[in-house]
Amino acid sequence: MTTYLPTLKQLQYLVALREAGHFGRAAESCFVTQSTLSAGIRELETLIGVTLVERTRRVVRFTPLGERIVAKARTVLREADELGDIARAAGRPLTGEMRMSVIPTIAPFILPRVLPKLRAQYPELTLYLREEPSGPACDSLQHGRADCVLLALPYACGDVEIAPLFDDRLFVAFPGSDSDATSGPIVAEDIDPARMLLLEDGHCLKDHALAACNHPELRGQAAMLGTSLHTIVQMVDNGLGVTMLPEMALDAGILDHTGIVARPIASDRASRSIALVWRKASPRERDFRLLADVLADSDA
């Protein structure tokens, strides 16, 4: 009896459609025409004898079985990628392609310092970067869209290996004209939660900031939410409130050309741990640890 198995290309098309929710966008992500992608998925459905996708003019809806097969397809594609990783791991270190997700409160402050050093030390490495909040970044890691993630801990990122890089202190930032401005550390309990300007949900720095000022219960009660640290800095500079900024952002000059004053926080929780994480049992662990060494040096 001949057994016909799905091809990796068919599984790739199916996963791309699930993630894009649209045949055209899925085809673009796979660098094929829409008709090619649609035909590949129909061949897959014919092969296994079930309908995976309900097609209408406006909606692409996966059947319950289709959802289960998508989950399994992600695992198969991720492990197929790791076949190539095994071969690369046996050769020269940090060569070939690597996909790294970086959270937005780290990417603009570390990458300009570390990328030139990485190119100089490992010229055969092609590093594809993707900036996304902690949740989507960890999801990308678990589903194989990313090989590793540069993020801030504590954060639950699933079953991962962790290479701690360095601690990043948090500072209170307030308008220079603020009458409460002092020259020394700010006591956490003196921070008025009603004036706090924080990042919107999805950014782990928000939770780290609330923990640092001993107000984790105020997660959904910030005076105003910003989409980026640069946006929040402009709010503070215009007297709309106070915020917390990581030391790496201060070192990178985020307060240049503003009247904002930053002070350290007198709290043992006023920091976050910067780390590189990757899936457990990855055959590229040696590469990730070498990459972690380069990233850790960026703090020097």
TrEMBL record:
Protein's UniProt name: LysR family hydrogen peroxide-inducible transcriptional activator
Domain named HTH lysR-type: residues: 6-63
Cited CDD domains: PBP2_OxyR
Family: Belongs to the LysR transcriptional regulatory family.
Organism per entry: Sphingomonas japonica
PANTHER family: TRANSCRIPTIONAL DUAL REGULATOR HCAR-RELATED (PTHR30346), TRANSCRIPTIONAL REGULATOR OF OXIDATIVE STRESS OXYR (PTHR30346:SF10)
Gene3D superfamilies named among the record's database cross-references: Periplasmic binding protein-like II, Winged helix-like DNA-binding domain superfamily/Winged helix DNA-binding domain
Keywords recorded for this protein, A-Z: DNA-binding, Transcription, Transcription regulation
Pfam families, sorted: HTH_1, LysR_substrate
